[in-house]
Write a structure and sequence with these properties.
This protein is of the alpha+beta class. It contains six helices and ten strands. It has helices spanning about 5-10, 35-45, 90-100, 125-135, 140-145, 155-170; strands at about 55-60, 65-75, 75-80, 80-85, 100-110, 115-125, 180-185, 190-195, 205-210, 215-220. Helix 5 packs across helix 6 (about 155-170). The structure holds flavin mononucleotide. Keywords: Flavoprotein, FMN, Oxidoreductase.
């Protein structure tokens, strides 16, 4: 029998100081640019034991402007932007080709934090995508080699055959090129940091790009 969804939902809590450490956040003491704060917060959530803190919701819009979202892995963040990867022919790849603008949302419940990043998305040079893939695991290369991301799958057996062949190729030649595997870089216009508070006086600090390497900051009502 299925569980009672309403009862389960009512039994669950967020920003519960009994189970969650909710550190104070003083926006007045925050760095002048968002990457430094993102890096600081990332280090803190890793130290606090957040599982898979590098997984992030990637929101895109299709050619008609309808929204879509899925989880991807963050591959890096630097002056060129926040980077993630996928196949150019996948649904997200086609959406990004039609509308090269996206949003990322990180949720780090261990410290009651959320980070939102929005901005235009550029395709990194193919050498950067190759180097990125080379630095990852055999499994990541095998997944990339399996390809056909987001195409209809006829049967599990079809995937098993393609995946087995991809694992063999990945193990035999870790430098196998995967031309459709694409590294994307989101260069933020806006980055928002949210620190949850048990009394719901959540702190929201937003950075908006005001020039090259220059940011305005402001607070938002929670
Ligand atoms: C934890 C996790 C990490 C994932 N990482 C990636 C990733 O880095 N790149 C990717 O293309 N898909 C990744 N996926 C799969 C995507 O969520 C999605 O199923 C896939 O990219 C196809 O999405 P699309 O049809 O919108 O293109 C990940 C899924 C999960 C649950």
């Amino acid at each position: 029998m299925e569980p009672d969804l309403d009862a389960l939902l009512r039994s669950l809590r967020v920003w519960d100081p009994a189970t969650t450490e909710l550190p104070p956040f003083d926006p007045a003491a925050a760095p002048a640019e968002p990457l430094a704060l993102f890096t600081r917060w990332f280090g803190e959530v890793v130290a606090a034991g957040q599982r898979e803190p590098h997984t992030v919701t990637l929101a895109t819009a299709d050619a008609e402007g309808l929204p879509d979202a899925r989880i991807v892995m963050l591959h890096g963040a630097d002056a060129d932007g926040w980077s993630f990867a996928g196949h150019a022919g996948s649904r997200k790849g086609r959406q990004l080709a039609a509308r090269p603008y996206a949003a990322l949302v990180f949720h780090w419940p261990v410290l009651g934090r959320q980070v939102r990043v929005r901005g235009p998305v550029a395709v990194a040079p193919p050498e950067a995508a190759r180097a990125d893939l080379r630095a990852r695991s055999t499994g990541a290369l095998a997944a990339a080699l399996t390809g056909r991301q987001s195409e209809p799958l006829g049967s599990p057996a079809e995937l098993a055959r393609a995946s087995a062949a991809a694992w063999d190729r990945a193990a035999a030649d870790p430098d196998t090129p995967v031309p459709t595997w694409t590294l994307y870089r989101l260069r933020p216009d806006e980055v928002e940091f949210f620190q949850g508070d048990p009394r719901r006086r959540h702190v929201r600090l937003v950075y908006r790009r005001s020039g090259e390497g220059e940011w305005d900051t402001g607070l938002l009502w929670p």
